[in-house]
Design brief:
Helix content is about 35%, strand content about 20%. The chain is α/β, with parallel strands linked by helices. The protein has a seven-stranded mixed sheet.
Length: about 170
């Protein structure tokens, strides 16, 4: 996992729920690549799945990922090539599902207020800093506890557990 991520912003509003992230009509598959083809299809940017570029970043308002507890939502985002999601806040179950699937997420309310659709931003996961490269403004983000950082660096909870069982994760 990269600790410094740069990308172009796709800006979304408040209360983007899991049905907007990956509509229920596509939940008949667990193939992450197939899910990625339909990511954000029922959102305010229904063309996201085919217009975004790998490395583009989702920036959203409050309560991102609300709704059902489906793990498909962060998986669809991750496999669509989105390296990080920045939001004012995340729904609690989405937050854990994102960490468990290895999708970095960052809470940075002030940054979200200032960042616009199409801006270029940089997210430093280790330092907890979001920089709007289009304006030069820098914002503090909520940092993760060390244990969650280890899970993200491993690529998700399952990979972390496998590494731990093999003895390759330090305590």
């Amino acid at each position: 996992m990269k600790t410094v991520i740069r990308g172009r912003v796709w800006k979304f509003g408040d209360n983007v729920d899991t049905d907007q992230i990956i509509p229920a009509r596509y939940l008949n598959t667990s193939d992450p690549h197939e899910l990625a083809k339909h990511v954000m299809e029922d959102s305010e940017h229904p063309d996201f799945a085919y217009k975004h570029r790998e490395g583009d970043i989702i920036v959203a308002g409050k309560n991102f990922g609300s709704g059902s507890s489906r793990e498909h939502a962060p998986i669809a985002i991750k496999y669509a090539g989105v390296p990080v999601v920045v939001a004012k806040s995340f729904a609690r179950i989405f937050f854990r599902n994102a960490i468990n699937t290895g999708l970095p997420i960052v809470e940075a309310p002030e940054a979200v207020e200032e960042i616009r659709h199409g801006d270029e931003i940089e997210v430093n996961l280790e330092k907890g800093i979001v920089t709007n490269l289009s304006t030069g403004k820098e914002f503090k983000a909520t940092s993760f506890p060390e244990e969650l950082q280890k899970i993200l660096k491993a690529g998700g909870l399952m990979e972390y557990a496998k590494s731990k069982l093999k003895g390759s994760v330090s305590e």
